[in-house]
Amino acid sequence: MKKLDTIFSQYIRLRDTDEYGYGECITCGEFFHYYNFECGHFRHRRHLGTRWHEMNAHAQCFTCNRGDDMVEYIVAMLEKYEDIEVSNIIHLSMMVGKFTRDEKEKMYNTYKAKAKELLKDKMFKVNL
Predict the structure, then answer these.
(1) Domain span holding position 30
(2) Under a CB-based contact definition with an 8 Å cutoff, are residues 104 and 98 in contact?
């Protein structure tokens, strides 16, 4: 699970940054470099149904990701996605999520390939 979490985090941070590695924190709106982002989750990672759901995860600065105030994240989600999509993420997070070893390995390979593809257009390097 740790290996999948790591590659998923790398993919999300690559997805949410430009070719130089800079992007906007989903919650505070400040600009940071890839290396100063974490993979922030709208619905907590303990909810396996959305732990590796791309719409549930975004580049987030350390301060915001470690904070307890979810209001800014909720506002950002409603601005980024339609209400129904946010509702679907919340619903999915409440469902029991169980993944087999093979399913997790497949997700790992998928996100590794997606991250490698994104790296082709980046002007900085990341060890995947």
Answers:
(1) 2-115
(2) no
